[in-house]
Records
---
Amino acid sequence: MNSDEFKKWGHEIVDWISDYFKNIEEYDVKPNIQPGTIKNQLPLNPPEDSEKFENIFEDFQKIIVPGMTHWQSPNFFAYFPANTSYPSLAAEFLTSALAAQCMMWQTSPSAAELEELTMDWLRQMIGLPEEFTGVIQDTASTATLVSILTAREKLSSFNINANGFSSNEQLRVYCSTEAHSSIEKAVKIAGIGKENLVKIPVDENFAMLPEELKKAIEIDIINGYKPLCVVDALGTTGCTAIDPLKEIGEICKENNIWLHVDAAFAGSSLILPEYRWMLDGIEYADTFVFNPHKWLFTNFDCSAYFVLDKESLIKTFEMVPEYLKSAESQVNNYKDWGIQLGRRFRALKLWFVIRSFGVTGLQEKLRYHLELTWELKQKIESEADFEILAPVHFNVICFMFKPSGFNDGEELNKLNETLLTKLNDSGKLFLTHTKLNGIFVIRFVIATTNVEARNVGQAWELIKKEAYNLISKS
C-alpha cells in the first residue's frame, strides 16, 4: 500500500467507523454463534502473495464484525465498560501514525512531558493530594502488581530484588472476599503465593470489615508472618461495594503496612464533588489506581496509577543498561515506573478527551448515567417479583427475578441464569452476572458513552417480558 492508497482507504475506514457508530444498534450486542464459527471461515495457511486491501477490508466486514461483541453499543450493560469517544479515537489514529516507542524522555520528549502534565490534571480532577505522582499503566491488574512489588521491595530494603526470597520471608497480603481476582494473580506473580493472600470477611453491604482485618493481622504477627500490603476496594467488581478507607488506613498505619487503593471503575466518579467522601482516609494510602478506559471515555488501555513514594517505585523497577543510558537528568523515564520497557503514547488520548469534553462535560456525562441508574432502580424496586441484592452506590444494579412460589435458592439461581441466557441470546442487550452470598444476581451497568434513557427503558421492558414468559411456561 502506497501513500495514495493509504489516503483512499483511510477515508473509507473513517467513513465505515462513522457509519458503524451511527448504526451500532442494528448489530446484535453479543453474537449468538458457536466456537470456531469465525476461524472456520478463514484459510488455515498464510497467503503466499500480496492480497488486495479491498478484499481484506471486505472480509473484515463480512467475517470479523459479525463475530464481535459490540462494547460501544448503548445496549451493552455488561461487565464494566471499555469506553471510547470520538476525541479518543482521533488520538488513537495519531498515536498509531506516530508509532513512537515512549519508554524514555529522549525517545519522545512530548510523550513523557504530556504524560506528566495530563496525570497531574487527572490528580486534580479526582481530588488526590498533591503529594501523589501519576503514571499511566496499561491496566489496574498491572498497577496492583506494581504496587505489591514495590511494597515487597520497600519492606525487604530491596533485598528480594537483589537476592531473591530467603526461607524466613512469610509475607501476607489482605483484601476483602469481594476484591478483584487480579490481586490473587499479583501475589502469585510476586512470589508471595496465593496461600498468603488473606481474604477478609465483608459486612451486609459487601464492604470489608475493619475489625476482621485487624484481627487477621494480629493473628498473623503472632504466627510469625509479615503483613505486607492491604488492598482497599473503592467499588468492588461484583457489586461496587466500598471498603472503609479511613478505618483500614488507620490499621495500616498502626502496623506499618502498605496500603493500595483499587478504584478501577468507580474512581472516575471522583471527578464529581459529591463522591469525594470516598477519599476520606486517602492520607494513609501509598498507591491509588483507577481506569479512565472504563468510565472516562478513553480507549482501552489507560490505567491511572498514583504513587506517594515514587523513589521506591523507581528503585524497584529501574534498569539502565548501557544502550539505554542518556544524558538528561530531572526528567521522567517512564520505563522505570512499571513492568514494561516499551510504552505506547497513551497520554495523548487522555489529553484529547479531557480537553474535548472539559471537566464540566465529563461531569455531565457521569451524572446522566447516574440519573438513569436511579430511575431504573426505582422501577426495579416497584416491581414485586424483582429484588435488588446490593446497595446501588454508582451505576451498577445487582438484581434478581424472584417470583412468588420460588423459594428454593438453587431453583432461583437456575431461573435467573436461564433468564440471563435468554436475554443475551436475543442480541438486543448484553448483561453479565455475579454471585453474592451464593445468590446468582444479574448485573446491570449503565455506563457506555452514548447510552440513553430509551436504551435503559427498552432493556428493562425486555427483562420483564422474558422473565414472566419463563414462569408462564413452567
Note: The chain has two domains: 1-30+69-84+358-474, 101-344.
---
Amino acid sequence: MEARTPNSEVFYILFMTAPSAQIKHSMFNRFFPPPRFLEMPAVGLDISDDAVSAIGLVWRGNSFAVERFGRRLLPNGSISGGSVNDEDAVVATLRELKDTLKLDFVNASLSEESAYLFKTKIPRVSRKEIREVLEFKLEENVPIPANDAIFDYTVITQTGVHDADDHLDVGVTVLPKRVVSAYTKLLDAADIVPLSFEIEAQAISRAVIPKGNRDTHLVVNVGENKTGLFIVSDEVVHFTSTVGIGGAHITEAIAKYLSISLSEASIIKNEHTSFKDKQNTELFLAVMKAVSALKDEINRLSVYWNTHKDTAGELGKKITKIILCGHDAGITGLADYIALSFEDRVEVGNVWINTFSFEHYIPPLHFDESLDYAAAVGLALPKGH
C-alpha cells in the first residue's frame, strides 16, 4: 500500500510488518516492490464489494488521456466488507477483465473497511527510525497484534510549522496481514501483477480532490448497497466509516412508489430527466426519503469531526466541502438535498480533476459512468503526479 500527499514527505516502505514477524525477502519484494516499480506504467484496478473496475491512463502533451477502461459486476456476496467469500467468482471476473483490457501490472485497491487509521505524533527522528517508532504505537492504537499487522505511513507536513520542531505528525494505515494476503492471492490466481496496494478511500480522494488542496473534505462514495464516508485533510485520509445505504435502496424506493420491477426502476433512476419533471416531485421526495438516513449520518460525522479533539487535545481543520462520487451520486437533486442540512459546500465530484481539462480532452465515459471509476483513476495516476 502506498499513500501519497503532494506536499508531504512520503516514504515508500510498503507494508513492513512488526520486527517479530518473519517475512521472506523474496515474497516481500514480489508483493510489495521497491519504489522503482511504482514508476512503471500500470492500470488502476479497484476491487470493491460490487464490481472490479480498471482504467489505464496515457500521457499526451500536457495531460493524461484514457487509454483503456472496463468494469465488471461481481456476483452478489462474493466480496463483503472487503472479505473474499467466493474466490473462484472473483478470480473469474478478474480474468475476464484482464483478457479484455490486456492487464499486466496494476495498482490495486484494498477495502478501507478492514483498515484502521490513526494520526500520531512521534519524536523527530531519522527516516529509517520512523517505522521502528511507529511499531511501538500500533498496539495502543489498533486492535491487531503487531505480528499480524501490516502498515504504511505518511509524514504530514503542517504549513507554518518549522523544521526545528521536536515532533512529526504521521498518518498511519494498518491492515490485517490476512486481508492483504487474500487480495494478493486473487491477483496471482488471475495472473495479474500488483505493483502497489492502497486503500480505496485514499485512491478516491486522490482522484476527486484537486492536487495541492490541503483543506478538509468529507468524501461520500455511494455504492450499490452501502456508502463510504471519508474525512480527508492535508490530502491524507484520517477517518472512514460505512453506512448501509446505497444505490439499491434508491432503486427499491422507485420500484415501490411506481409499482414496477427493479429493472424498470433502475432505468428510470439512470434517466435523470425523470426527476426534473415537476409532475414527478412526489417520486423525487420518495427517493430522498430513502437516503434521509444517509444525510443524517453525513451530518453526524460532520459534527463529530468539527468538534472532535485529537489525543493532543487539538481540533482538526473544519470540513470545507462535501464531495459525492459513485454512480448514483449524479442523481438530479441529490447534492442539493444533502446541502440543505450543511453550511459546507456540497458537489458531485469530478474524477478527472487531476487528470485533464475538459477544454482539451473529452473522455470516452459519460460523466455518471465516470463516477464509478474514482478509485481506479486515483490508482492509475502516477504517485508523484
Note: The first strand starts at residue 9 and ends at 10.
